[in-house]
Amino acid sequence: MPAYPMDVREITGAEKVERVLRRFPEVRLIVPHLGFGESERFYSLLET
After folding, report:
1. What is the pLDDT of residue 1?
2. Distance between CA atoms of 25 and 33, rounded to whole angstroms?
3. CB contact set of 37 (below 8 Å; sequence gap of 6+)
4. How far apart are CA 29 and CA 12, in angstroms?
5. Residue 13: what are its φ and ψ, rounded to 5°?
6. What integer pLDDT is reported at residue 24 of this predicted model?
7. CA–CA dist 45, 40 (Å, integer)
8. Within-domain flag for 13
9. What's CA 13's distance to the chain center, in Å?
10. What pLDDT sits at residue 17?
11. Which residues contact 14 (CB under 8 A, 6 or more apart)?
């Protein structure tokens, strides 16, 4: 039995976070363990 009723990649990920940050650059967020597979991409967002 999966932990979530859907594929979480449909609603999460660095690409979606990047779109939000471009629209709302003042937003602060925490990337939980589900973002571990995209760590490098999330680190690159720190520099944008």
Report:
1. 62
2. 22
3. none
4. 13
5. 125, 160
6. 95
7. 9
8. yes
9. 4
10. 92
11. 35, 38, 41, 42, 45
Please provide the size of the chain in residues. Answer: 48
Is 2 a member of any domain? Answer: no
Domain that holds residue 18: 8-45
Total domains, the chain: 1
Measured CA to CA, the distance from residue 6 to residue 11 in angstroms comes to 9
* Residue 1 in tokens: 């039995």
Residue the block writes with tokens 């629209």: 23
Residues 1-48 have pLDDT tens digits of 678 898 888 888 999 999 999 999 999 998 888 678 899 999 999 876
